[in-house]
Each structure stands twice: as C-alpha cells, then as structure tokens.
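Protocol step 4 of 5: obtain the predicted structure for the target chain.
Materials: sequence only (see below). No template structures provided, no constraints applied. The aim of this step is simply to have a reference model before the mutagenesis design in step 5. Sequence pasted as it appears in the construct record:
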Amino acid sequence: MEKQMETNGAARTEAHSEASLKAHSEAYSGTNPEAQPDKYQQAVSRLLNIMDELRAKCPWDRKQTMESLRCNTIEETYELAEAILAGEMDDIRKELGDLLLHVVFYSKIASEKQAFDFADVCNILCEKLIKRHPHVFGETQVHSDAEIRSNWEKIKLSEGRKSVLEGIPNSLPALVKCVRLQEKAQGIGFDWSEKEGGWDKLKEEMAEFEAELKSGDEENREEEFGDMLFALVKCARNYGIRPENALEKTNLKFKARFQTMEELVRADGKQLKEMPLSKMEKYYQQAKQILNKK
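Step 4 output (structure tokens):
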C-alpha cells in the first residue's frame, strides 16, 4: 500500500512538473504582447523583410546556398570571438549582427525548400531552453551549477543520445574540443573531487612524456605530449581558467612584443636575422618595458 502511495505521489509530481513546463512553454510562445515589446518585434520584422528583399532582388544573395555560406559563417564566428577577447562592445555588437545575418540567411534558404523558417528556429530553441532548465521553468530543485550541468546531461540522454559526449563537433579546434569533452564527462561525475587530483595526474603525464623523450620513440612522444596537454587543460579548468582564452591572450601578447621589437630594431637601422639571440633578447625585453607602460 505504501509503495502504491509512493508511486502515485511520484506520478503526480512528474505530471505536475510536466504541466508546469508546458505552461511555461505556452507563456513564452509569443502570444503574450507584454513578453514581446514593439522594439524587438519591429527590429526582427525589419531584418526578416530585408532578407526577403535581398533574396529576391540581389544576384549575389539569390545564388547563395547553405554550403556556400558555411565558410563565411565560420569566419564570422572567429571575428566575434576576437571582438570578445578584445572587449570592444561596439565590435561585439557588429559581429553579433553579422552572425545573426547568417542565422536569418540559413532560415530563409530552408523556408524556400519548405523545410523550416526563422520562427521554427526560434521556437525550437525556446522549447529546448525550457525543457533543459526545469529548475527555472519546472519544479526541480538545484543548489549548485554542478547539479545543473548534471541535470543537463541526463536530459540530453533522455532525448535519445547514446553518449554524453555526443553533440561535440569533430571539426572543433583540439583545445576547445578538449575542454568540452572534459566538461561533459564532469557533468555526470567523471572527475576528481579535489583539485589536487588534477595536479597529480599532470605530474604523472609529465614524467611519462620525459621518459618518452629519452627513449627516442617519436610516435609515443607525441601521444604522451597529448596526454600531458589534456591533463594541463584539466588543471586550468579546476581554477576557472579558460585554456583557449588564456593561450590566445598569450599569443596576442607575444605578437605585440615581437612586432614592437621589430620596430625598435628597424629604428636602429639593423636587421633581426643578422643578430645573435642574446642581442634579440635585449630588444625583446625593451619591447616588454614599452608595452607594460601603456
């Protein structure tokens, strides 16, 4: 009897949660005028109308396909990433617009094939956000972002995925992919409970890499270096460091210092390629001092 009562209670709770999610889904369906201020309606309508005009009247826009736009989309994504790192809000706004254009463009092409349109794209995104945030739109209780991530992975598996690692594009840059693989594994608890575990693993991988350097086996050397990098990424994440951002900032810093060094060398009427390393180092340190004062 008690078991039956527990079952009935669980069913009622699940039904209540589903009903709550459904109610939120309907509330955000676009039928509520207060949820869609004129400012946003007008901006979106203007953009869609312009896309219609371009597709109908511009020879270049008319001949584009999803395949022809793909590389441009990748380029726009990288431009946005650069603007974010630079922290220039005007550039970020511009690049977001460029990327939004591609979303609208793909949707327009799909609508011509009667596959889907921009409204479908928005609505399916809304449904996904509502379903994957039951702690906001449902009755689920969470107490940390770790619980939220864990719930996300469980929800995704319930949607038919066979692995928590599905959904990570194979074409992602290796460093970004490494972070995403680790994040998804962490989402189901496959992770050290203490930060020190990451350091211990890194030391272990460094020792193995050093051993391979001494062995002279080039194939194993590369594999062990990869393992060491993977462990280093984990250590960075343990301390809230985004490896891709950290490395790119160092790239930009080195580029600025090196180019300043080149300017100093040219100003002295000399050439880098004719200098010994010790002399280059003096110019490099001078460049660092100049940039540090800015």
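Step 4 remarks: Confidence is low (pLDDT under 50) at residues 1-16. The CA atoms of residues 150 and 187 lie 5 Å apart.
Proceed to step 5.
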